UniProtKB/TrEMBL annotation, chain A:
Matches recorded under SUPFAM superfamilies: MetI-like
Name of the protein described by the UniProt record: Sugar ABC transporter permease
TM spans (from-to): 12-36, 70-89, 96-123, 149-175, 196-218, 259-280
Topological type in the membrane: Multi-pass membrane protein
Domain ABC transmembrane type-1, first and last residues per copy: 66-277
Species name: Albidovulum marisflavi
InterPro entries hit by this protein: MetI-like (IPR000515), MetI-like_sf (IPR035906), Sugar_ABC_transporter (IPR052730)
Entry's localization field: Cell membrane
Entry's family note: Belongs to the binding-protein-dependent transport system permease family.
Keywords: Membrane, Transmembrane, Transmembrane helix, Transport
Primary location class: membrane
PANTHER family documented for this protein: GLUCOSE IMPORT SYSTEM PERMEASE PROTEIN GLCT, TREHALOSE TRANSPORT SYSTEM PERMEASE PROTEIN SUGA
Signal peptide range: none
TrEMBL record, chain B:
Keywords assigned: Membrane, Transmembrane, Transmembrane helix
Protein name as it appears in the record: DUF2160 domain-containing protein
Membrane spanning residue stretches: 6-29, 50-67, 73-89
Organism: Albidovulum marisflavi
Length: 290, 90
């Protein structure tokens, strides 16, 4: 059935538009204004032109943070998406245990970021934390405040613990929507488990997986609280991701101009990647609809 | 509005973007169009093409600033060529 087109429905979006204007658009315009000026406080500004943008483009610090951020998001996606699918495939389809699994999976998602950070910060400590103490007893030299690999491993495992269930729940919802007839047909054709996954389950999960990848990418690209609480961006700068670096620059050093230029570039990268994801997603939907 | 630290150039920048958005809204109402598929193999409307143009122009300007040591208006010329190409082929 063709959907009716009624452009007047756009007026219903007006309240949201007003809210977003106040909470996002006006602050963003202010950031653009800051990015071409210099200030020493007291709301007195001096024209700086594109200087901050050139400085930031030449800044090793920003490129390093961007590189770390890309590596972090890449690792997160490479672990969480396959793991989430694997968990979803092995979850009970119905009955009591299905509900138990769903509740257990949803639990980490309900915990606020800073609490997750605190949990892992204590969990990983060698003196009082269960994980840190156990690893220490096993003879593994683990100290996330001093060792580069330990810090990265902790931050990544923490994110995997916190967010894999989101991917799993989305993939699970996708799996539940596949009619039994598909599996029966596959059985008649004596399809192997791998072929059932490759030709039935994966294509049917495509839509939800795209949403899962988009959400996980955006969230990990903007990550701030968890690594900030656990490692504070250290040791050195090794877990200083874009947001952490930005906050250090804007609030720690009060370099509003460079931080604003940095924010705009950060925003543009996010806008570009979101647009690519969104376009791919809507085009997949259209192709499926045909 | 003092707290927003306005400057002339940024005011002009936002005014141009606002004018573009208003123009394209009026165009979309006056002359409704069907989406078309261009070189990117995706369906685009005029609004989509405007978005691609603006986002691409931002990156062109940044690349120009970082890589080319010529005045910034060179990037603007490049952006206009890019805009024409996007509206013609995308």
């Amino acid at each position: 059935m063709e959907k009716t087109v009624n452009q007047k429905a756009w007026f219903l979006v007006l309240p949201v538009l007003a809210l977003v204007a106040f909470s996002a658009v006006i602050p963003l315009m202010t950031v653009v204004n800051y990015s071409v000026q210099d200030t020493f406080g007291n709301n007195v500004f001096f024209w700086a032109g594109l200087e901050w943008f050139s400085n930031m483009l030449e800044s090793d610090r920003m490129w390093a943070a961007l590189g770390r951020q890309m590596v972090f998001s890449g690792i997160i996606l490479a672990i969480e998406v396959p793991l989430g699918i694997f968990v979803a495939l092995n979850m009970p389809k119905k009955g009591f245990w299905a509900s138990v699994c769903l509740v257990l999976m949803a639990l980490p998602l309900l915990i606020p970021w800073n609490v997750v950070g605190t949990i892992w910060q204590i969990f990983g400590r060698v003196d009082i934390g269960l994980l840190g103490h156990t690893l220490d007893r096993l003879g593994i030299d683990y100290n996330y405040t001093q060792d580069f690999f330990a810090a990265w491993a902790t931050v990544i495992v923490m994110d995997v613990w916190h967010w894999t269930s989101l991917v799993a729940l989305l993939a699970y919802a996708g799996l539940q929507s596949i009619p039994d007839a598909y599996y029966q047909a596959a059985k008649i054709d004596q399809a192997s488990r791998w072929k059932v996954f490759r030709y039935i389950e994966l294509p049917k999960m495509q839509g939800v997986l795209m949403i899962a990848i988009l959400l996980r990418f955006m969230d990990s690209f903007m990550i701030y609280t968890e690594p900030f609480v656990v490692t504070g961006g250290g040791p050195g700068n090794s877990t200083t991701f874009l947001s952490i670096d930005l906050v250090k620059m804007a609030l720690g050093q009060f370099d509003l101009g460079p931080a604003a230029a940095f924010s705009i570039m950060y925003f543009l990268v996010i806008l570009l990647i979101s647009w690519v994801f969104y376009t791919v997603m809507t085009n997949l939907d259209k192709r499926e609809g045909k | 509005m003092d707290w927003m630290a306005w400057t002339g150039p940024t005011a002009i920048f936002f005014a141009v973007i606002a004018c573009l958005l208003i123009t394209f809204t009026i165009l979309a109402i006056r002359f409704p169009e069907t989406p078309r598929v261009g070189v990117l193999r995706i369906e685009t409307t005029r609004g989509d093409r405007l978005f691609i143009t603006l986002l691409g122009s931002a990156f062109i300007n940044l690349a120009w600033l970082g890589l080319v040591s010529a005045p910034q208006w060179g990037a603007l010329i490049l952006c206009l060529i890019y805009a024409a190409a996007v509206f013609r082929w995308v």
